[in-house]
Please model this.
Amino acid sequence: MADAAQATGGAEAPVLDVIDLKKHFPVKKGLFGGGNAKVHAVDGVSFHINQGETLGLVGESGCGKSTVGRTVLRLLNPTEGTIKLSGRDVTHLSKQDMRPVRREMQIIFQDPYSSLNPRMSAGDIVGEMLRVHGMGNGEERRTRVAELFERVGLRKAQMDSFPHEFSGGQRQRIGIARALALNPKVIIGDEPVSALDVSIQAQVINLLMDLQKEFNLSYLFIAHDLAVVEHISHRIAVMYLGRIVEYTDKKTLFTNPKHPYTEALLSAVPIPDPRLKRKKLVLEGDVPSPINPPSGCHFHTRCPYAEERCRVDSPVLREVAPGQMVACHLR
Amino acid sequence: MVDIDHQAELTKAGAHVTGRWSKLMFFARRYPLGAIGAVIVVIFVLSALFADVIAPRDPLQTLASASLKAPSSGFVMGADMMGRDVLSRIIHGARISLTVGVASILLGGFIGVVVGLMSGYLLGWFDLLMQRLIDIMQALPLLVLALVMAASLGPSLENTIIAISIPLVPNVARVVRSSTLSLREMPFVEAARAAGMSEFRVAARHVLPNTLAPLIVLFTAQLGSAILVEASLSFLGLGVPEPHPSWGRMLSESAAEYVRVAPWLVIFPGLAISLAVFGTNLFGDALRDILDPRQRS
Model:
């Protein structure tokens, strides 16, 4: 399934095309410090997603992956770069012009507890999406919400319940129903399963994959758990400190990672086989501050192979093998 | 093995509650203090509405022979210096006191909610300006501020309401602003934005309802101080003008002069004020819980 989707998806124009996206947040440095310091949350990120495809975006916390998701949705305004949805540039659209575009792009949040308004019933939360976009009358909307509920594995009777009456997994299903309500093309999952139990994670991931097949959805799947990403993604982008360091299809990434950071990430994934011996690459230290990112390659402070030029030159993402983009001088 | 009585469990959780009346009874049993509060509030509201029917005498009628008469069968709560029936004056006073209390809280609360919501939402210069104004207002005690307002507006019922409501604005605005600041970062508010909702809708449907709990507590707590400020204003001649009976003025007029000879002139209006405050506080606490869907089932 994965290969087929990729083969057909590669030919047509991508549903979502992000080019050199940057998002800097100004930091206030005291009373007279001026506004010069910036958090380089996203520092030149490019990727595309084809129809029916899932791009996994992984990286440790603070690397800017959630900021990418929010900026693509225009919940945050990009500092630089271009966001194209179905070929249309939406980077600088006004709030009003964004409204119809929002139907095509939706988001599923990480925390199923704070992502649902505690004072609205589950049915109203999902139905409000339709209401805001003026779709159908009360009766039609209720029917559609009931459909959505059943599609994501909830019962129709639960429409009148309030969020606190659901379990975490069920709440996430409400979140999915809300994201689906407007028939979007792209859904951005901001760590949609990392707050759930492992057993529930699998259910929600499977639901997302079924929905993808059924509605030909495209996902930007943000996560820090490689095992989860491996299961759902077709291609994967690895982020480190605001930049993509490796960008390739799932199989290549897991069998033949090229970037030292990807290697380190992969060797941190536990394998349930005590006899299996493998080379371990354990990183030292913490992620440097995005306010003063290291010069040259952002990763050189923790990279076991770093050379002099890594400190000076910033490596660009280039194709080191067919379909495998890596930002490293040494590969 | 423990036997579970499913029917009893369901009943306890309120599964049988369907009709309006049975819902009311269910809540009354669940929040007994709230029910007591509600009864007190209802009694006061009814006596305010039907004062003309309930009051045994005309609250304005003076009777020289009954001056400072102790509570007796003719005057259940005694009579004041001018021989006016205290019970009738308290019943009629409920009108003034409750009108002033409720109206000033509604007015002050409304302005406070709007200012707080806009402050927390728009931030920037609007927030800065409003917060500094509120700082200035909060530097003065409620009564002093109300005094200044009342003195400049002149004594009348409407002006008393305005004079009391404006000083209530800062508290409400602060509470709403601080919850707005934390709510605006919540994922469900982001979700609403991602859906393309207008900022007004986000504020009204997603932010405001979630600031309700502290507001109800604040409102019921301030009802008491509103009634007391009205009392002080009336005592100083800046509130509701004579001869309309207001609990506050009844209390303050007689407190100094007659408390030794005729303590009933102080006790009964004081009791009315405390009961009204107590009742609304109890009722407000229960109301906060009932209106929160998380507490309902």
